[in-house]
């Protein structure tokens, strides 16, 4: 079964005050912003992989360099819709499913999310109505859907370690067959920097 799947990257324009602010004590403000830019650029440089479309949803934009990189790699650049994270994700999923069999939504703070991980998600969507990419801290970095229900996104404490568990609970209530990909890690605190360094990232305030 071949599915038409659209890929959606949600990211903030690198600027002071975002999630990267947790890294400022270790990297300095400029270093933290530069790291966020590296993480977004890494995803934008992933191969197309046969997705029907790839859309870069940028919050707090514009960002000329990232938008230029996205366009060079055939991503469509769009401003994120209004609302909290859950409402934005719901709207994006609805739009993606209007002309596709499935959607995959991803974050950029996972430095090991690669083409193979995305391929696993697409394969899982053939047999499941939903697929999640769990993170070590109880959230998820990837959400794949073949249908949408507002209950997946309502009253979720985004950023907490309950996101994954609550989402899986909602999927069970909806009686949707769902799959879990291998657990990965996200960068959002100084303790993760040694792992980044081992991956070859150049870290520092200068």
Automatic annotation (TrEMBL):
Xref: Pfam families: DUF2064
Coiled-coil region(s): none
Gene3D superfamilies in UniProt: Spore Coat Polysaccharide Biosynthesis Protein SpsA, Chain A
InterPro entries, A to Z: Nucleotide-diphossugar_trans (IPR029044), Trfase_1_rSAM/seldom-assoc (IPR018641)
PANTHER family: GLYCOSYLTRANSFERASE, SLL1095 PROTEIN
NCBIfam families per record: glyco_like_cofC
Protein name: TIGR04282 family arsenosugar biosynthesis glycosyltransferase
Taxonomic placement: Bacteria, Pseudomonadati, Pseudomonadota, Gammaproteobacteria, Pseudomonadales
């Amino acid at each position: 079964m071949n599915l038409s799947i659209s890929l959606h990257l949600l990211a903030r324009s690198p600027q002071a005050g975002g999630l990267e602010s947790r890294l400022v004590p270790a990297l300095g403000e400029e270093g933290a912003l530069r790291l966020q830019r590296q993480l977004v650029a890494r995803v934008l440089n992933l191969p197309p992989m046969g997705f029907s479309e790839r859309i870069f949803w940028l919050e707090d934009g514009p960002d000329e360099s990232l938008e230029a990189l996205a366009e060079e790699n055939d991503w469509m650049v769009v401003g994120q819709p209004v609302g909290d994270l859950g409402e934005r994700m719901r709207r994006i999923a609805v739009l993606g499913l209007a002309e596709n069999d499935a959607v995959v939504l991803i974050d950029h703070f996972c430095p090991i999310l690669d083409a193979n991980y995305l391929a696993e998600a697409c394969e899982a969507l053939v047999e499941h109505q939903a697929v999640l990419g769990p993170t070590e801290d109880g959230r998820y970095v990837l959400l794949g859907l073949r249908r949408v229900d507002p209950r997946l996104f309502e009253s979720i404490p985004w950023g907490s370690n309950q996101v994954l568990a609550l989402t899986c609970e909602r999927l069970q209530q909806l009686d949707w067959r769902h799959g879990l990909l291998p657990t990965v890690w996200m960068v959002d605190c100084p303790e993760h920097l040694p792992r980044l360094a081992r991956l070859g990232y150049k870290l520092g305030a200068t």
